[in-house]
């Protein structure tokens, strides 16, 4: 094999790699280098942990809504109106506390944040402190340009994502707004019948799990994934709320043996957060007009977009504010009372 032939093959291979990498860089379907302006980006659940990187880095915002799927139907435009500033959703379906920390890290690293609204789902704090709900491509979230090769020469991006983006735009779809990003509210029926599918409210309950079973994980997540942002950014206001599950979720918690430890974790988290001057804590878990009306839910936990809007209005009006630990103790007792009533065949 001649030297000239080898050089020609290597040159052709290098040219092909540069063409592939250049195409991905120019189109940039995940918006890793810039926010898309000349095409509509395809932002969907299948690649949420990938597209979140570009959104967190390049969209214009100074405030963010952070949380699990319970926050995905939130409308940043409503928060713009109620609080001022420019809002974005930095959300991860089924996310752990570490998922949320990864996104907040990008936000605080790249801009000055005015506010964070954080939907604190207790179950997000029982994972290990460095555990994520799914694989997260951290090379997309860092500032190292050299590991971008995993994006620029990714065959799935080249052969799947670019084509999907082309198809998406060929359909003439309108630009994806900040409000519709990851929105799933129109895909489900919200009704009592849906909530009660497979639920036996009067089923017996086993002994409850040890209330301290996840204390270590909870404290690790606070120390590693939430408190550092609060402590290092006293200029940022954190509006943290416990989301309103339906009353049937608490019934199921007791039937699974979870209710005592979940409410105890909420108490302990409350005690840790209340001393911070830049934190406002809210508990919507006994908001009766929300949690007792099962028509607000598609299952025992996921509420309708109308409740997401109602949460925004409540936060703006400072409703549901927790001023001391006894507020949460009272809410816990209310939850236990409701669960007793439902378990005996009644309706609160």
Structural commentary:
The protein is α/β, with parallel strands linked by helices. The protein has a single domain, classed as Rossmann fold (3-Layer(aba) Sandwich). The protein has 13 helices and five strands. It has helices at residues 3-27, 48-58, 76-83, 97-110, 149-152, 155-170, 192-195, 215-232, 247-256, 259-273, 288-291, 305-316, 325-343, and strands spanning 63-67, 87-91, 115-119, 237-242, 279-283. Helix 3 runs parallel beside helix 12 (305-316), helix 4 runs parallel beside helix 8 and helix 8 packs parallel to helix 10 (259-273). The longest helix has 25 residues, at 3-27. The model has no long low-confidence stretch (mean pLDDT 89).
Write the layout of secondary structure elements.
Blueprint lengths: L2 H25 L20 H11 L4 E5 L8 H8 L3 E5 L5 H14 L4 E5 L29 H4 L2 H16 L21 H4 L19 H18 L4 E6 L4 H10 L2 H15 L5 E5 L4 H4 L13 H12 L8 H19 L5
Parallel strand pairs: 1-2, 1-3, 3-4, 4-5
User: What Rg, in angstroms, do the CA atoms define?
Assistant: 23 Å
Give the C-level CATH assignment: Alpha Beta
Distance between the termini: 84 Å
What's the β-strand tally?
5
Question: pLDDT below 50 for ≥5 consecutive residues: which ranges?
Answer: none
Q: Return the string of H and E elements.
A: HHEHEHEHHHHEHHEHHH
What's the CATH H-level superfamily name?
SGNH hydrolase
SS summary, helix count: 13
Residue-averaged pLDDT, rounded?
89
Q: Which structural class do the helices and strands define?
A: alpha/beta
Could you please say which CATH topology applies here? Rossmann fold
Please name the CATH architecture.
3-Layer(aba) Sandwich
Number of domains: 1
- Strand order within the widest beta sheet: 2-1-3-4-5
- Globally, the shape reads globular
| Percent helix range | 40-55%
Q: Note the main sheet.
A: 5 strands, parallel
β-strand percent reads 5-15%
């Amino acid at each position: 094999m001649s030297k000239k032939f080898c050089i020609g093959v290597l040159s052709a291979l290098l040219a092909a790699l540069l063409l592939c990498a250049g195409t991905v860089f120019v189109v940039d379907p995940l918006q890793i280098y810039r926010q898309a302006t000349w095409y509509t980006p395809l932002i969907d659940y299948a690649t949420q942990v990938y597209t979140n990187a570009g959104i967190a880095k390049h969209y214009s915002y100074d405030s963010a809504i952070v949380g699990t799927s319970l926050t995905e139907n939130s409308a940043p435009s409503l928060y713009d109106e109620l609080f001022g500033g420019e809002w974005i959703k930095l959300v991860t379906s089924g996310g752990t506390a570490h998922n949320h920390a990864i996104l907040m890290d990008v936000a605080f690293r790249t801009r000055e944040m005015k506010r964070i609204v954080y939907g604190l789902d207790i179950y997000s704090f029982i994972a290990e402190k460095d555990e994520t709900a799914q694989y997260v491509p951290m090379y997309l979230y860092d500032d190292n340009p050299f590991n971008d090769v995993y994006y620029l020469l990714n065959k799935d991006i080249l052969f799947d994502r670019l084509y999907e983006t082309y198809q998406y735009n060929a359909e003439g779809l309108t630009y994806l707004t900040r409000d519709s990003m990851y929105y799933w509210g129109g895909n489900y029926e919200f009704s009592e019948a849906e909530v009660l599918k497979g639920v036996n409210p009067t089923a017996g309950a086993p002994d409850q799990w040890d209330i301290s079973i996840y204390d270590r994980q909870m404290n690790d997540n606070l120390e590693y994934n939430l408190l550092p942002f609060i402590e290092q950014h006293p200029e940022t206001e954190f509006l943290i709320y416990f989301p309103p599950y339906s009353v049937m979720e608490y019934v199921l918690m007791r039937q699974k043996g979870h209710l005592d430890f979940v409410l105890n974790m909420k108490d302990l988290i409350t005690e840790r957060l209340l001393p911070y001057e830049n934190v406002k804590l809210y508990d919507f878990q006994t908001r009766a007009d929300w949690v007792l009306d099962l028509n607000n839910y598609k299952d025992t936990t996921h509420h309708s977009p109308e409740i997401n809007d109602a949460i925004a209005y409540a936060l703006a009006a400072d409703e549901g504010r927790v001023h001391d630990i006894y507020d949460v103790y009272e809410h816990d007792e209310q939850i236990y009372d409701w669960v007793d009533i439902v378990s005996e065949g009644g309706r609160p």
